[in-house]
Each structure stands twice: as C-alpha cells, then as structure tokens.
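Table 4 source record.
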Amino acid sequence: MPQISVIGAGSVVFTGRLIIDLCLTKSLYGYTVVLMDIDEKRLNTMYSLATRYIKEMNASFTIKKTMNRKEALTNADFVINTVKVGGYEPMEIERKIAEKYGYYRGIGDRVSDYYGGIGAYHQLNFFLDLARDVEDICPDAWLLQAANPVFEGTTLISRETKAKVVGICHGHFSYTEIVKALGLEIEDVDVTIAGFNHNIWLVNFLYRGENAYPFLDQWIQKEAEKYWNSSEFLNSPPWSVEQLSPAAVNMYKLYGLFPIGDTVRSASPWWYHTDLETKKKWFGPTGGFDSEIGWSIYLNQLKTMLDQLYAWSNSPEVALIKAYPPSFSGEQHIPFIDAIANNKEVQLQLNIPNNGAIDGIPNNVAVEIPTLINKSKDDRKKVNALRIGKLPKRLMLHVLVPRMLRMEQILQAFLEGDRKSLLLTIIEDHRTKSFEDASMLIDEQLGQSWNTEASKHYKQ
C-alpha cells in the first residue's frame, strides 16, 4: 500500500495535526504511516496516541514506528521532514554566547537561519543527508520540507539533489486575521500572497472582486490604536497578535504591501529589535514572539504540551477525540499528498523553485507562492507555480533581495565549508563592535561540544 513516512515524528505539535488530518481524509484510507524519530520516548508516545486516535475515529491506516531512518524511507511515497536537530537547548546557549558579544537575542535573522544554530549547519546538513537518502532509497517519493529554515532548505535540496521537494508552511493563513478584523466575509475574499518563506506579502487583496486594501487603510486610520489598547491585544499570546501589530502596520507603510504571518517577526527592520522596550513598542507588551519574554512563553508551552502528551499516552481511558476534536488543522501536507496521490486539482501555497514566477528572482531560488496541483501523469509536472510578476521595487531592494543574498551566503558557506563567509555575515551585522569580537564569537560558538562537526566542516 502507499506509504507516508514522517521523519522527526516526535514533534510536539506537528504529528498530532498530521494524524487528525489523515483521519479526516478518507481518500487516503489504506495508507501505511511510518513514524520515525531517534528519541524513543517521544516516538513511543506519538505512536501510542496516533494508534488510539485512528481507532477512535474508525479510520483505516496501518501505523508503524522505527528509530531507523533508512527503514522508514524504504517503500515511501511521501516523506515529511519535521526535524529540529538537537532541540532548542543548544540554540539558547549559542544565543547567550552571542549576547555576551553585544548581539541582543543572538546572531542572524530573528527566525529562519537561527533555527539551525550558527550558519544553520545542523539543519542544512540533515536536510541534505535526508534528501540524498530519498534519492537512493525511494527516488520516486515526494519530500515535504516542513522543518526550518524552509527557505534555505528547499533551495538547497532542489539545487543539490534530484529529490522531488516542496517546502510547506502554514504562515500564509494569518491573512484571515486581517479579514476578521475588517469584518469581511471570508468566502468573498481572494488573496495572492508571495515572497520567501517567513517573508511573504499580501500582493493582491480582493473582496467581492474589488481591491480590499482601502478597507485595511481605513481600519489602520480609525481602529488600529483602539485595537492596540484592547485587552485582546494586550493579553493574548504574542504569536496571536503580531499580524495586526504596530510593527506589521509600519512595515506596510514602509514597503507598500502588508506582511503576512511570520514575516512580521523575521523580515521586520533591525531597529524594531534593538532591546526589549523597543520590541514592546512594536510587538506589544511581551515584546513579540522572539523577545526573551515571548520565546520563554513558547518554550514553556512546548514543555507543557509534551508533558500532557506523555500523560495521555499513559492514560488509555482518556478519549483523545475529546481532547483533540477532529477538525482540519489547516496544514497543507495532507491536502498536497491527497492531490498528488488521487489526481485532484487544487491550489496550495508552496515553496518551490521560482522559475519565472516572481520577476527579479533567479529561477533556482525557492519562493513561497500560490501553486496549482494539476492532473498531469508526470509527477514533476503536477506542481505549477502561478505567475506573480513584479513586486514593488522598494520591497524588492530593501527586503527580498537582501534576504535572498543572506540565503545565498548561508548556502555558500555551508556547501564550501567556508568559515570566512560565516565571519563576514557576522561582521556585516550593525551590532558588530570589532573584527576581533566577531572572530572570537565564531570560535566560541563553534567550540561548543555539539558543534564539533560544524567546526571541522567550516575550515579556517
């Protein structure tokens, strides 16, 4: 039977959403789902919960588990990568080292590259190893890149391997928060969102066929201040209010298009992020998702969720469909698999090579754009980008092109093991005090025990 293999299945958030979506997609019943993780406790927990949920839903899937990646890839038709190598603890220690040298909240972009530690080495190295295993073991399988950094990862895999890769993220759905705030009927809204992963913009915004940006302009003029002083904005988790934060509105005024989802975090100007008080001005009372307050809330929430999953796994009497009511998560992994496997035509937001979709971006750079899955018999021709065309020059020159160059710097340093390139990316940071400080920071971070391989890889 067809097989979906989840690499990094111990994920606190993702695997549960995947299983629920599968149970609600009857056209995939009969599939085998292989859960793979190197953390045995997490793997056993997710296997137990997935098996129980499928039984409670009367769904028809065969669930398997393994700690062996090559075993998981054998006979796979779809491979979903959710891996965060090493967890978050090393990243937090590297952040503290960087702060010692004056880099508040660490080096690199707010999110994106920093998910992989210095130079994103661990993530990129894993991505390439996994993609090459897919080439060797299941060359006809689709590789769904869900782990960050999706921008660098999808670009790297598509350039360096023959794997059929797409990057998938749910951040674009944040546009619905704008629709809700404006009081528009969601079924009458049509949007085009495009850019790079964690750097996407509301290119077209239509309501009943007419430009809806004037509604947004009116909300900014008459309602924004009231919203920023409301209990909803002041008391909600930081990640749930960033879409309509002062930062998002100011970015719209600066660049000409409204930023969507994680863009508000990761593509916002450096001067929003100089210290906690400045972050609070732009992102609300916690300073946003990536502040020392917001990020601590997130990490604590992950721990709480993991403890809850362990508890449910050890309590067979708990009805999981009550704890997790069966409704679609909004993640696009299962809709993508369903469309490819069952020859369905559907439009999704995917990360794929540009190939002329956005003017001014090289063809071999992964862009996040509306993508049509069609009924072609040739798998590689089933995924087709919709044409975007030109984006505002100011946005291109001050946001997208610099971010693209940052991606190219990261990949060049990784592929060539170029330590000097890592040093140059840090020196270019406006917070760098001296060449000597930047050099010591590189040496100290690469000198950590978990970076032994990275230090050997990035030659002097």
